[in-house]
Write a structure and sequence with these properties.
The complex is a heterodimer. The longest helix of chain A has 15 residues. Chain A has one domain. Chain A has 4 helices and 9 strands. By secondary structure, chain B is mostly beta strands. Chain B has 3 domains: 362 residues, Rossmann fold (3-Layer(aba) Sandwich); 199 residues, Jelly Rolls (Sandwich); 123 residues, Sandwich (Jelly Rolls), CATH 2.60.120. In chain B, 11% of the residues lie in helices and 30% in strands. Chain B contains 7 helices and 31 strands. In chain B, the strands form 5 sheets. Chain B has an 11-stranded mixed sheet with strand order 1-2-3-4-6-5-7-8-9-10-11, sandwiched between helices. In chain B, helix 1 runs parallel beside helix 6. Chain B is globular. Classes of the chains: A alpha+beta, B mainly beta.
Amino acid sequence: MPWPWQGSAVVARTMSGSPCPREQLALCVALALALLGAVGSPLLAQGPPRVQHLADVKELPGTVVAQARVDPPETVLGIAGYRIRHVALPEAHRVLIQGKAVDVAEGWHVTVRFARPLAVRDQAFSLVIDGRWCGFLQEAPDLRSADAVCFDASLIHEGAALGVTYRSIQIVSSAEDERLLGPDAIFADSDEAIHYASWRLRLRESR
Amino acid sequence: MRREKTVLSRGHGFALTFVLTLLAGPAFGQGDPAATGTHDVTTEEYTQGDTVFTPVGFPAPVEFTAVVFYPTDLANGPYPLVLYLHGRHQTCGTSTLEWPCTSGRLPILSYRGYDYSGQQLASQGYIVVSVSANGINARDNSVSDLGAGARAELIDRHLEFWRTLNTVGAAPFGTLFVGHVDLTRVGTMGHSRGGEGVMRHFSYNAAKASPFPLKVIVPIAPTNFSRWQVNQNVAVALILPYCDGDVSDLQGVHYYDDARYLMSSGGYQSYVTVMGADHNFFNTTWTPGLGPGAADDWTSTADPWCGTGAGNGRLAPADQRTVALAYLATFFRTGVGGESGFFGYIDGTAGRPPTVQTFSLHSAYQGSDAQRRDLNRLLATADLTTNFLGGATSQTGLSPHDLCGGASPQPQFCLSGQSNSRMPHTTPSSLSSLRGLSQLRTGWSALGAVYTNQIPAGPSRDVSQYDFLQFRVSVNFADGRNPLATAQNFSVRFIDGSGGTQSLSLGPLTDALFYPPGAQASVPKVLQHTVRVPLASLTGVNLADLAQVDLVFDQQASGALLLSDLHFYQRPGSSTAGASYFTLTPCRVADTRNRVGPSGGPALAANTARTFPVSGTCAVPSTALAVAGNLTVVNETDSGDLRVYPAGISPPTASAINFVTGKVRANNAVLPLGSGGQVAVQCDMPAGSTGQTDFVLDVMGYFQ
């Protein structure tokens, strides 16, 4: 849960609705810190776009830094293209990046287009760049695209491998998952082809 | 005869569809939990609209809609309540994920996909509510917990609605259900993300000022992103489809693994693996030909087991539903209804329900602390030399022989070079840093290897009260020492303190040593199932002085296994096994209407327990193991149930008798006696209740 956009109500539920599990302590702390930041923020009270949910970040204005059309579509999931928008947040937010709480003031809104409608699945649908998780993908209503917000600046670089996967990826631990080493590590397993796909990023301009 | 009609609009802003179905089914079949019951069933839908409330932290409003199946003869109730929650699926038209539906598209009725089970359970005397969650499905990948919290809140809203229906009534039903819903007995089932929803709801509900008394939770092919734990007097019964092409890593097995040693006050953990089942076919709306845009989630068509070719292991959709029907009935009739006849289908001691005898199913079960004596939990390195009872542990001829999959410093995975989906017990969890199941990874290359657990002298050696030696095991398909596609076999050797020895070959006793089938994508899998060795078959060993248990690898020349949870298991109510029955002139041993005393008043107060002496009264000897008797409740001032159990242990999950306000109820029972020859009685009433009930116990015989 590396984004704290759920607002105060979620924190209240975490505190009173159920005990914060020890293994999610870092997450709970991050959420609580984010709440404190939001409550104390003069920016949110003065009219800039209000960011309560992750979905709100996707609506913020931004700059397209990478965009590509893939013809013919690549991979078993039929990646037909992608677009990455750099988005400045109205205020700093604390998020989890590779299991560590980090204050960020920017994010990258990544939209991946597909050549055919996605199947709606119960398994988590993740955006992966260079073998690292950087956001859950929300399918568009027509199931022809999906988008996520990535806060890990280190992943957005020329030549990075962009992928999508339905595989379980642990995102709250700072420990290295031995299966997530190297840019294409998780794409090497042919037994689970349906679970991922990849394409190389080409940035339109340097950040 | 079957009759249906539809009535629209039942006022107060609710759109209502009313379907009345009269079932004239066969007589109640005691041995078949899935048999159609004797109640006629009415089916109705209720809704308050598509955008009724916004769950906390959720980006958009969602619907409040459900279908309910209930016994038409409500006046003969009250009836327990069971709630179903479907999983994630497209929401509108045939392949759209939006909410509410636009452009004239119709909602996809995922919540109607379990009608087959709702009808059956209602005919057995249950109120079954299946809830729509399309609004959550449309946006849940945008929230940090992938919708678990929203689903828990949705469940709670419906349960609270039913609390209102039961107390003062509400539109669109008016007072139809007032007094007819037994909210002391509630169970939930969730499929896929709905499975995680019902597990999340457990803790959501527990934090409420007036929680609903959840008895059993049934996740089917659930996600488990956050590793919610359900334990402490609540039963969790999983259904895992081996050919799941969606939640293909069967991450739901973590629910069992995480809670199996956290059941100090009752409950159990269980799962049944349905070998030919996919993810979707438990829901008719998600089944091709029955729902819009539905598909088989297993897409590797050529797999020799899970593919769709002729002669493989896949179940037809109707067969898959037959399995779900049997086990949902088993779980809820046992855990919510308090019936004792089907428990053997849960712990596996009675095999499978009659309607699924021909299917390939494997099960695992772990009882509460009161039901077990752990021999070796296999959790940490020290367990390789000293077991849970303090005895020495050793091995000869086994390599490797180490622990894997559990907390660091164990290796995170037990198999190398295999995908996570082939190793469900260790598959990573997206939203939790918890590791997986600690397992003993062992193998042998020649006959005669032995894994030994000694039991130190003292009371631990008396295992005569237990029915089975149990452990979980899977064949390690990735180790070439296992003959391909061949079931493994080995022996368990028991040695008593006097040197008495007896060995049993496991082959005839278990199906858990199967070679996992499949060759593509997420199969084969190393998924552990329970081996049960009946102690009653040990005629040459003194079970009151058992000194050593050996696993002897003497049946196959080589092999490799993953093992966990070595323990002795006592079935609930099994203390009369092997005992003789002696009749008594019917005699009253307890009556709380009498003056205050050990066998008399005061009445049982809500949510308290007390003990009653049995041995030494009514000619029941001190050597009696159990009594046969009749329980009666009278003068109840609130609804509830009684759990009756041997004094000195934790209360069981199942109730012995259920009651409502002001109605005399009676039930026959065989009651094992506990410490001091006493029975304990736990009076369950709604949280916060100040009610009470009188309790009468008559005995007609005893076992010794």
